[in-house]
Amino acid sequence: MSTYWFRPKRYGYGATPLTWQGWAITFATIVVVVAATLTVVTQTVSDLSFWVAAAVDLAAIAALIEIGRRKTGGEWRWRWGDRS
Q1: Which residues, other chains included, contact 49 with Cβ-Cβ below 8 Å and sequence gap of 6+?
Q2: Which terminus of the chain, N or C, has fewer Cβ atoms within 10 Å?
Q3: Are 71 and 5 in contact (CB under 8 A)?
Q4: 10-residue averages of pLDDT along the chain (84 residues)
Q5: How far from each other are the two terminal CA atoms of the chain, in whole angstroms?
């Protein structure tokens, strides 16, 4: 039996963490994105490390979105609260 880590948001689009696993993957993504971004602060756009950090950011966010969509108990769609 699959346990859902996220639940659909009541307002807006997407999902919010529901279990400790959902919170853990969300915080891990935040840590990876912040660490990769901080390595770029002193770099110029022409440096390879800038593009590597940008790729790491994109990969981490894409992974969070994909995991979130697969582990959400319901579909991702726009919601207006209790009316939907």
Answers
A1: 39, 40, 43
A2: N
A3: yes
A4: 82 90 95 88 72 90 93 86 63
A5: 27
Closest CA to 52 of 35, 68, 64, 76: 35
Q: Report in angstroms the alpha-carbon separations of 39 from 13, 16, 26, 50, 63.
A: 31, 28, 20, 8, 20
C-alpha span between 51 and 49 (Å, rounded):
5
What is the reported pLDDT for 84?
46
